[in-house]
Design goal:
The complex is a heterodimer of chains A (230) and B (196). With 230 residues, chain A is mainly alpha-helical. Chain A has ten helices and no strands. Helices cover 72% and strands 0% of the residues of chain A. Classes of the chains: A mainly alpha (230), B mainly alpha (196).
Chain lengths: 230, 196
């Protein structure tokens, strides 16, 4: 038997096929190991690999392993069921909340419709400032409205404070001399304050309105009609 | 309905006896794969437990027309791979190989078992997996391909490379009767690292 690289490759292929159990080593092929020490070592190593299973036995699992696993699986199942129940309840609660909110909105719109209707001729009911709003939902809206009103009132008071000393008659009947007596700087200051006060007072309303409009746009308008958020 | 399908349907009804029976039927196969692949008893036991918990969670997805064992072993292989990735950040340890229950030593088979185990443990994960499934578990190629989720050709390639690497390491460690250390040129191309 010769000892060329081709012979060695052929021998190695045979060894692989033997380990694959698709071939057996013929004595003539084994003769190559007599002349090639490397292939002889490969053949010996292959024989060691063949007995790998018999010399390497894994340890056994504890006796109660199956019971432990089943216990954990059952615990996991009940926990999962609990989570599913909780999730279901949350979903039901949210659906219920949406339903109640829808009813409330409907109630408000009907209430507004009734309030906007022409009053009955005999017993006109006029709201007075001292009467607290009977509807709790209305009282919820009254508070921020009152805040906005107070802010505006404060701003207007601030604006008007420098003008309290002005001669009202001069403004009503303006002549050149009377107008000259007015303080131009104070006028400018008042105008600036009026503008900034109005902006500050109306800012909450403007922001909420913008937000509400953008939500409405997102929720109800078709895709093509939407404008990108600014 | 065959036996496995009946067992699975009982498990799906959460019958503890059926669940226990399923675990007992496959626990040795799963543990052997986990232990040989991970080389650590405690890790293998933990993985084995995780495997069965996953099996119980996923039983509805099992195809009753196919055998149950490869399906469970595939889950086992995936769990082992995840565990191996987590452990790969830790330094490698070979002391776990002492956990092997070696057959009563008529000769120096204990040392032999350790040496082969070391050589196999240094293979990269996929090569070690197919080497163990074939040489230790005695699984045929088609079943290994199903378990690892790769074509048979790939499995054969991995196994042949794994063998060459094991040969090379055994020769380097002087485990052969012929005391001369000689690294054959055919084995020089089989150098693969123990990484994925």
């Amino acid at each position: 038997m010769s000892r060329t690289p081709n012979d060695c490759q052929r021998f190695l292929n045979v060894v692989q096929r033997c380990l694959d159990e698709t071939a057996t080593l013929h004595p003539s092929e084994l003769a190559h190991t007599e002349v090639c020490l490397g292939c002889r070592q490969i053949w010996q190593a292959a024989q060691l690999v063949e007995i790998f299973r018999s010399v390497n036995q894994p340890p056994t699992l504890p006796d109660d392993f199956a019971n432990r696993v089943v216990l954990r699986a059952i615990e996991g199942t009940s926990a999962q069921r609990g989570r599913e129940k909780l999730w279901l309840m949350l979903r039901l609660a949210s659906i219920l909340a949406v339903f109640v909110a829808a009813l409330q909105v409907l109630h408000w719109s009907v209430g507004d419709h009734v309030a906007n209707a022409p009053p009955p001729p005999r017993e006109p009911i006029l709201p007075t400032e001292s009467d607290p709003p009977s509807d709790p939902a209305r009282s919820t809206w009254t508070e921020p409205g009152q805040t906005v009103l107070n802010t505006l009132r404060r701003a207007v008071d601030e604006v008007l404070s420098p003008t309290r000393d002005w001669d009202v008659g001069a403004i009503r009947n303006p002549t050149s001399s009377a107008l000259n007596e007015l303080d131009g700087a104070a006028l400018r200051r008042s105008w600036d304050k009026l503008r900034s006060g109005a902006e500050t007072g109306l800012e909450p309303i403007g922001r909420s309105t913008r937000r509400a409009l953008s939500i409405l746009t997102r929720e109800f308008l078709p895709e093509s009609a939407r404008q990108p958020d600014s | 309905m065959n036996d496995e399908a009946a067992l699975v349907s009982r498990c799906l009804r959460h019958e503890p006896d059926a669940m226990r029976e399923l675990v007992q039927r496959f626990q040795n196969d799963v543990f052997a794969v986990a232990f040989r692949t991970l080389g650590h008893r405690q890790d293998a036991e933990d993985v084995c437990q995780d495997v069965f918990l996953r099996v119980f969670r996923s039983l509805r997805r099992w195809d009753p027309t196919r055998p149950l064992k490869p399906w469970i072993l595939r889950i086992a292989v995936n769990c082992c791979r995840s565990n191996f990735r987590k452990r790969s950040r830790r330094p490698a340890s070979h002391e776990s190989l002492d956990n092997f229950a070696v057959t009563p030593p008529k000769d120096d088979s204990a040392e032999l078992a350790q040496e082969i185990g070391r050589a196999v443990d240094l293979l990269r994960f996929d090569h070690r997996l197919v080497f163990n499934l074939y040489h230790a578990e005695g699984m045929p190629y088609d079943q290994i391909a199903e378990v690892v989720g790769r074509p048979i050709g790939t499995v054969k390639t991995w196994l042949h490379r794994a063998r060459l690497e094991v040969f090379r390491r055994l020769i380097e460690r002087g485990m052969l009767e012929d005391g001369t250390l000689l690294s054959h040129s055919l084995l020089k191309n089989s150098n693969v690292s123990n990484t994925e």
